[in-house]
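chain below, 107 aa
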Amino acid sequence: MRTVLAAVSVALGLALGATGCATQKQDAPARTSGEFTDDAAITAKVKSAIASDVGARVAAAVNVDTYKGVVSLSGFADSAEQVDRTLTAAKKVNGVKQIKNELRVKS
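prediction:
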């Protein structure tokens, strides 16, 4: 339990810290401050869900980016099953409208 709590705390800190460095995409419509905050919360919840359901090591290897509720997952996994479990964990998070899967299985 303590390990999961620590992983969630780290994921939340990283997600919220990264939002301060976020930049607006050139061709993307602007987000309101509320949307920006919601996206940061969704990112943290997705990282937490991955850590809880798949493991902290996997959560650390997966990059999560959220824009207006659309979550992009990128990085590497050890197996196709791990990718599936990661996608399932992300889909169950409240506020996720769509998932863009850019996860790759290590060869």
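The chain has a mean pLDDT of 85. The longest strand covers residues 70-77.
thats it, cya
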